[in-house]
Amino acid sequence: MIGFIGSVFSPWYAWSGRRDPANHVCLNVVTYGPGGRFAMTERGRAALHTTPDRLEIGPSAMSWTGDKLVIDVDEWGGLPNVGRLRGQIVVEPEALTSVELPLTEDGAHVWRPFAPVSRIKVDLEGRGQQWSGHGYFDSNFGTRALEADFSYWTWGRFPAKDGATCVYDADRRDGTRLGAAFRFGADGSAATIEAPPRVRFRRSLWAVRRETRADAGFTPKQALNMLDAPFYSRSAVTTRLFGEEVTGVHEALDLNRFRSPLLKPMLAVRVPRRRK
Questions:
Q1: What DSSP letter does each residue of 124-184 carry, written as one string?
Q2: Residue 222: CB partners within 8 Å, gap ≥ 6?
Q3: What is the C-alpha separation between 175 and 152, in angstroms, rounded?
Q4: In DSSP terms, which residues pair with 213 in a beta bridge?
Q5: Is the dihedral of CA 264, 270, 26, 211 positive or negative?
Q6: Do the Cβ atoms of 9 and 38 come closer than 8 Å?
Q7: Whole-number Å distance between alpha carbons of 72 and 65
Q8: For residue 116, is the peptide bond before it cis, meaning its omega torsion is within 30 degrees of 0?
Q9: How far apart are CA 29 and CA 38, in angstroms?
Q10: What is the pLDDT of residue 165?
Q11: Structure confidence by residue, pLDDT tens digits, 29-44
Q12: Are 249 and 236 in contact (CB under 8 A)?
């Protein structure tokens, strides 16, 4: 689930020249398994309302209560499983961190992991859409298009016995590379760590290149396919970090493919727009 002000993957936002992010907002919600739904309705400025503790996008909202994030979802899933997607999700951090990672030297892109170790409770309408478990809460900020500064990036968050490990790698268009890894504790502690090497593993169904960090001699593998697009892959991946075999959420993004003008009309089918 992602709340966007300036929907970075929206064809409508790209076609507009990305001049008015508040006029391109959405709450992207994806559920997996039988009856899984994909909701990403882009809305205009009239649908956006904000306070320091609340983000409203059309009929859905995210509210920070001081110790937990409460998300009220009221969206409409698109093809192939069209239908209403409603309910509430509560993310309760074990602790909050103070970490910010500039992804470029000029700080045009920033990753902010607010609560890498959290608990989550999901209560959505529909059979099998009620559960609780590990949660994660972060944010990304930027003042330029992703594809303007990056050709490829990959990210992973892997639960560990004493917290969680996050790895962030990207190939910048100026020829430099970003490689960062953090170990987060349940108490909110954060430490930069020297991660194992980048290791490639099997491409996605759309042949998106995938890699993550792994101990020497171990090849990561997909445990569950979550979301597959011509330029993007989200999946549960098993790897081995510092001698511990872990399974976490992994993302890979091919921004060379995303730049293609041929892709935008395809995305418009998945990302409908409502101005009001």
A1: ESSTT-EEEEEEEEEEEEESS-HHHHEEEEEEEEEEETTEEEEEEEEEETTS-EEEEEEEE
A2: 201, 202, 235, 236, 237, 238
A3: 11
A4: 198
A5: negative
A6: no
A7: 13
A8: no
A9: 6
A10: 96
A11: 999 888 889 999 999 9
A12: yes
- Identity of the residue numbered 273: R
Q: Distance (Å, rounded) from C-alpha 38 to C-alpha 183?
A: 31
Task: Tell me the pTM.
Answer: 0.92
Which residues are within 8 A (CB) of 33 and not within 5 positions of it... i.e. 6 or more apart?
A: 128
For residue range 101-148, list pLDDT tens digits in order: 999 999 999 999 999 999 999 999 988 899 999 999 999 999 999 999
Report d(CA 251, CA 225) in Å as an integer: 11
Q: What's the whole-number mean pLDDT along residues 92-96?
A: 94
Reported as type and span, the H/E element at residue 257 is: helix 255-258
Instruction: Check residue 192 and give its pLDDT.
Output: 94
Has residue 276 got a pLDDT over 80?
no
Separation CA 242–CA 11 (nearest Å): 41
CA distance 257 to 254: 6
What letter represents residue 24's amino acid? H
In percent, how much of the chain has pLDDT > 90? Answer: 89
Report CA 42 to chain centroid distance, whole Å. 17
Nearest to 36 by CA among 4, 1, 82: 82
Letter for the amino acid at 181?
A: A
Partners of residue 60 on adjacent β-strands: 57
Q: Which residues lie closer than 8 Å to 210 by C-beta, 6 or more apart?
A: 154, 200, 201, 202, 203, 204, 233, 237, 250, 252
